[in-house]
């Protein structure tokens, strides 16, 4: 994981004409990494500053190249993925922009700027797929869970556990009836907080580690009735459409889309979020 400076190196900027919320790193005096050897040898800090400078100067292709150097070094941060998504959007590479916005959301599900930029990018996708409606309570709990990251929910669950233990001790040791009542009911409330926050933390962890969601990376993709190129075409998907992988077989993936339709696609034409 990236060290703390990844979360501190950026300052918000007003949205440009395309309505994207951009958040590039602060402009620094560092020279842009213009040569391949420089990109290979520079420290992550220098690459970060060079990518931010390239982005601010409108050189989005160079920003993409440099941000990808950081990704290639197995560095990860929601701000890295967010900035890379913005740079791809500026380059009109919508599928890759959507891919990296989704990857950023896995690390920071409560960041509204990422969610907004993703919605802007998705308006450029050709496929309009109506989602199968969810039960309203399920929708509500999912939306609440996504307001914070797995780490934040874990911290809240630990706070709830400590509060429950402390209030339980108050109930057991206090002599005054008022304090015993506070300890008893406070313990019950803290246990409920602990249960719900732990549930949300586990849900966010499962979502973060989930490898079943993917994005179509080719301009068009035929969904087949079976894992065979000669099989019947069921329907066509286009660049940037998200789908869920259900099974894999010999370079093929069985997939479903938001409206429940399913079929088989070639694995190399999609990329896992």
What does this structure look like?
It is a single chain. The protein has 273 residues and is α+β, with helices and mostly antiparallel strands. Helices cover 52% and strands 13% of the residues. The strands form 2 sheets. It has a 5-stranded antiparallel β-sheet with strand order 6-5-4-1-7. A two-stranded antiparallel ribbon has the order 2-3. Helix 4 runs antiparallel to helix 5. The N terminus is likely disordered.
Proportion of helical residues: 40-55%
- The helix tally amounts to 10
Query: Low-confidence runs (pLDDT<50, min 5 residues)?
Result: 1-19, 25-34
Structural class estimated from helices and strands? alpha+beta
The ordered string of helix (H) and strand (E) elements is HHHHHHHHHHEEEEEEE
Nearest-integer average pLDDT:
84
Number of strands: 7
How many whole angstroms does the radius of gyration measure?
Answer: 23 Å
Question: Which key features would you list for this structure?
Answer:
single chain; 273 residues; alpha+beta; two-stranded antiparallel ribbon; 10 helices; 7 strands; globular; disordered N terminus
């Amino acid at each position: 994981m990236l060290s703390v400076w990844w979360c501190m190196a950026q300052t918000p900027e007003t949205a440009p004409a395309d309505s994207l919320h951009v958040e590039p790193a602060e402009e620094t005096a560092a020279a842009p990494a213009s040569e391949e050897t420089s990109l290979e040898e520079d420290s992550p800090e220098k690459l970060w500053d060079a990518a931010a400078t390239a982005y601010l100067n409108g050189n989005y292709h160079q920003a993409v190249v440099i941000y990808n150097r950081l990704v290639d070094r197995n560095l990860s941060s929601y701000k890295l993925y967010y900035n890379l998504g913005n740079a791809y959007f500026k380059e009109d590479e919508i599928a890759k922009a959507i891919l990296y916005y989704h990857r950023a959301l896995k690390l920071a599900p409560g960041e509204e700027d990422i969610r907004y930029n993703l919605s802007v990018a998705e308006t450029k996708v050709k496929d309009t797929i109506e989602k199968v409606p969810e039960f309203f309570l399920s929708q509500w709990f999912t939306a609440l869970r996504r307001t914070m990251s797995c780490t934040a929910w874990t911290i809240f669950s630990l706070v709830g556990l400590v509060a429950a233990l402390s209030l339980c001790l108050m109930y057991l040791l206090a002599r005054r009836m008022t304090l015993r009542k506070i300890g008893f009911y406070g313990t019950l409330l803290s246990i409920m907080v602990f249960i719900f926050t732990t549930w949300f933390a586990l849900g966010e962890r499962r979502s973060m580690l989930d490898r079943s969601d993917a994005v179509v990376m080719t301009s068009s993709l035929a969904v087949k009735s079976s894992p065979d190129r000669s099989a019947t075409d069921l329907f066509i998907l286009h660049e940037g459409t998200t789908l869920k992988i259900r099974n894999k077989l010999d370079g093929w993936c069985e997939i479903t889309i938001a409206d429940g339709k399913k079929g088989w696609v070639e694995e190399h034409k999609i990329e896992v979020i």
